[in-house]
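hey can u run this one w/ calcium ion bound, need the structure tokens asap thx
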Amino acid sequence: MRGFVILLSVFMAISACSKEKSEPVTIPEADFEIINIFPHNITYFTQGFEFMGDTLVEGTGHYEHSKLLKYDLTNSQIYDETNLPSAYFGEGITVLNGKVYQLTWTSGICLVYDYGTLNHENSFSYSGEGWGLCNDGTDLINSDGSSTIYFRNESDFSVKRTVTVRTSSGISVDEINELEYANGLIWANIWGENSIISIDPATGVIQGRYDLSELRELAVNEYSGSEVLNGIAYKDSSFFVTGKYWPKIFEIKLNDQLP
Ligand SMILES: [Ca+2]
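ok here u go:
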């Protein structure tokens, strides 16, 4: 099945950061292709999504319903699962050096678990909100709903550096949400949009945008409660994407031949 969005060489306007909402910005737009479709639990308010080998690791949100799970992509069999304290609204997750890190939305707490058991081992504090989380093999990388992306030490969650997500013309783009690190780039959902952008981690400059609205339509057609796209995981040259309360996980190929 091929995505109907074929807009190579087209520059599409999207809204920029809140301070500059009225100004359209241009970002190279490219297409995608659906490779496979897998089941996803419609009770999961997806906030973090990442593979560790062939195992999917997912973090979910909402007070009293936030979870951290490890499960089989093909049949949804759960290997390990832990519930967050009811006061925590779970956000992004990532796995680095045998630990799972899970942000909370407004509590300023990053929960640290043993990957093998999902036993809670430690907690780090940070200022501001927690949204998306990924890692580049060395640093933990998080978003906070603004245009800033933070690179942090895995040992204590302290900030090493930041970049501002922006277009090549310098206009910042905020609401950066779920993250994935792949092929030397940071891939991100933008809150409220059914799209993915790719970001140069050195400069914050957006390399391209992929409109995945077609996938949300497919999700809604099967389950009307499907909310926005939010969940990017990368494995074996494919991206696996889902959304909040979506019944499906879509394996897709993103065309990297940007104009
Ligand atoms: Ca991810």
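The pocket of calcium ion is lined by residues 49-50, 134, 178-180, 232-233 (CB under 6 Å). anyway lmk if its weird
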